[in-house]
Amino acid sequence: MTIEPVPVHDPADTVWRLLTALLMVRKEEFPALAASFGLNPGAMHALLQLDPEEPQSMSSLAGAWKCDASNVTWLVDRLEEHGLAERRAHPGDRRIRTVALTRKGAKIRSQVEARMYEAPDNLRALSLRDLETLAKILRKIVPEDRSRP
Q1: Residue pair 43/79 in contact by the 8 Å Cβ criterion
Q2: Secondary structure element (H or E) that encloses residue 101, with its range
Q3: Where does residue 80 rank: exposed (0-12), middle (13-18), buried (19+ CB within 10 A)?
Q4: Taking the mean position of all CA atoms in its chain, how far away is CA 45?
Q5: Exposed, middle or buried: residue 118 (CB in 10 Å: 0-12, 13-18, 19+)?
Q6: Integer Cα distance of 142 and 83 in angstroms
Q7: How far is residue 23's CA from residue 41's CA, in Å, rounded to a whole number?
Q8: Which CATH number applies to 42-132: 3.30.410.40, 1.10.10.10, 3.30.565.40, 3.40.50.620?
């Protein structure tokens, strides 16, 4: 009888599994977060993806969101219903429609981000030293353009 060796777990896979599990738990909270602002998760995601400084064309949103133009229309309709975004004519080509956040939309977007980036209690329970170490490690792997809220 041959005894099979116990498989050695890849430490990177173990860390990735833990990070993914943490993010999945947080993701489960998104529908409630969206609902607290009167939005569905798709509309909340769309709100967070809109650039507060630069109106974007409907076609560029479809490309960025990797969805059909009809989905962009539906999502923008939801945001418009809540007064969070508005369609505008493109200044250089009136045939192109752009989407811009309203003042209310920019305010709600900031509030959603603030709640979304609020650390959970189990993370706050870590020591300052552990938090600083974790932040240092994560900065090594998180793309710089994604590390700022």
Answers
A1: yes
A2: strand 97-101
A3: middle
A4: 6
A5: exposed
A6: 34
A7: 16
A8: 1.10.10.10
Of the candidates 51, 49, 53, 47, the one whose C-alpha atom is nearest the C-alpha of residue 105 is 47
Bridge-based pairing state of the strands 97-101 and 56-57: antiparallel
Torsion of CA 102, 104, 107, 110, to 10 degrees: -70
Tell me the pLDDT tens digit for each residue of 18-63: 999 999 999 999 999 999 999 999 999 999 999 989 999 999 999 9
Q: How many other C-beta atoms lie within 10 A of the C-beta of residue 113?
A: 13
**pLDDT tier for residue 73 given thresholds of 50, 70 and 90:** very high
Q: How far apart are CA 40 and CA 75, in angstroms?
A: 10
CA distances from 10 to 15, 16, 38, 73, 133 (A): 9, 10, 43, 44, 21
Domain residue extents for the chain: 42-132
